[in-house]
Each structure stands twice: as C-alpha cells, then as structure tokens.
Amino acid sequence: MNRKRLRDYGFLVGTLPTGRWNSITDVPGVSVGHVTLNQKNGQGSDVRTGVTAILPHPGNWFREKVAASSVVINGFGKTTGLVQIQELGVIESPIMLTDTFGVPAVTEGTLRHVMDMDAEIADKTGSLNVVVGECNDSYLNDMRGLHVRPEHAVQAILAAGSGPVREGSIGAGAGMVSFGWKGGIGSASRMVEANRRVYTIGTLVLSNFGMKEDLMILGIPVGKYLQLRDTDFSTEPQRNTDGSIVIVIATDLPLDSRQLHRFAKRAAFGLARTGSIAHHGSGDIVIAFSNGNRFLHDLESDFQTVHLLREDGSLISQCFRAVTEAVEESILNSLFMAETTIGRLGRTVEALPLERVLPMMEKYQNQQYFSR
Hints:
six-stranded mixed β-sheet, four-stranded mixed β-sheet, L-amino peptidase D-ALA esterase/amidase, 8 helices, alpha+beta
C-alpha cells in the first residue's frame, strides 16, 4: 500500500497545532538533507545506511552559534560534541546523523566542510566542535565495511532544504529497525504562542529501538495485539532489540541552554508514549537548540544577548507538551513512512503492517476493541 504519515490517516497526536509541514523544517531557517547509500554487494556486504544533516540556520554556524543543550536518557551511544555542548551551551556545526561506525567519517567530512567555509578556524581563531549522533544499523547494513565516507557528510549538508522532510528509510534511517519493523527518520512540529507571537518547536528522530510487543500507538497496545495474532513473533531470527534513538529538537523560541535542557528532558515522555523503556543497551540521546538565541564568535567581545523567553509556568508547560507531542509523532511517522527493506545476509525487515494496524486503531478508538 502507498505509505502515508500517521496524521494523513486521520489520527492526531495530542492537541496542539502543527506547523505548515508538521516537520522540524517548520522552524524558520532550519533545513534537512539526506544522503542514502543503498547498494547490493552480495549477501554479506549489502549497504543500507546513510547520512542526515540538520542545519540550524543558513548562515555560518561557527561564526553564529545557536544556544543548545543535550540529555542522555541512556548512554549506550558513540556521539561526538556533547561534552562541549553541555560546557558552553552552544552548537556551532550542523547536527549530523549516521550509523555507529560512520561517526568518524561524518565528523571529518563536516569538519572539512565548515573549515572550507571559514579559513580562520583553528588558525586565527578557535577549534570547531562537530556534533554527530548515531544508531547501529548492522542488522541490515554491512557496517564493518565503513561505507559512510567524509564526502557523504558534505553531500548531506549541501542537499539540505526547507519544506517537507523525507522520512522513513532515508538518509541515516536507511538501515534502522524500530519495534521489530522498519524504522528510520521521522519528524513533526508544534506551534506555541508567547508574547503575542507564534513560535515553532520541531523535532526529528532517528529511530532504531524497541521490541515488537512494546509498541504503543496513541495509547493502543498495537504490538501486543499483533503478537497475539501473529506467529512471526516466534519464528523471526534473533537480533538485538535494545537499539537506540537520536532525538533532535529545534525551536525559534529565544531560549538559553538551561531552558533547552528542560525541553530536552521532556523528549523522554514522548519516547515513552510509544512503548520505549530505554533498554540497558540503548543509546537514547536528545539534542536541543534554539536559533532564536544566537551568539557571535568574537574573541574580543562578550556574546550577544537577546530577550529570553520568560518562564511563565503555563507557557513553559505548553512548550513541554509541544515537545512531548512532536517527539511521539516523529517516532510514529518514522514507522508509518518506512518501507520493507532487504539487507545484508538476505535479512528482511518488514514495514509496519498498516493494512492490519489502521483498522484495529479505528475499532479501538470506537471502543469496539479489547472489550472486557
């Protein structure tokens, strides 16, 4: 069947309004680019991987840094750049996503690209902190082959654009698996009003986690329902289901790093709503930034200041709701949009069976399912 996003089937997550695209790119200035590597090299070395780039704004990221923070829900991950984010509270590069063994190459490619933009980096001015997140796609992808190269990072950055974000088995999501079905890239957004202005909170996820029986969609135990009626649960080949997820939160709200840290912590609630328990071996990482609060890189002057969002309790709670709803919907979009994929060793990961899930959701919402 032709795959569509969750909302396109008439199912809504939460109550807050979305942006035009219901994507992280609804945040003004934010753009997303993908490079997908999809090669059939023989059963043992098929390539199903890629790179995804999230650009905070269209300018020079090193010269015009954005306020940022990060949260590690569970630390079984191999990211770069988080230590300096927490120390200085800024991001000065694109946020890059890839597979676990692709992190060094993507870091190098991003570093070279930004240095090409600014000849003074590490010469007449400071060094550069590149931010890269990862998930392990080795079930479908020949990760040992180190197929992600520095040039793929550059290509993803150059491919970045606004408008709807391509989701599912694309870019860094090409080989990812979520809740036993095909996962990958998903995105969503929410709008909030503050000081008589409308602002956007957008999220993008790289989903690669969870067990089939844990999957929840809008509070419906979809995974358990399918398990009760599907012998495939017991006949599937065994694989590590701990998995990982990288969650990126973007906003144009004028926030500082402390406020963004509070936002990032709320991503865990959206993640939990889909059924995650953050398994022992999972790398659950959240990176949040605000391009509404930027800092000029100038060694001879203090950082510029903006009028930060006042922490009115009801407004901040609304923002927390926006983060939670957008993260939940991003994860579900990654599942709804991903397609069945055949990878290395002939392994197949099926797409979420929407032809079975959607009728069950409709009946459940009409209180005709799971009658007691």
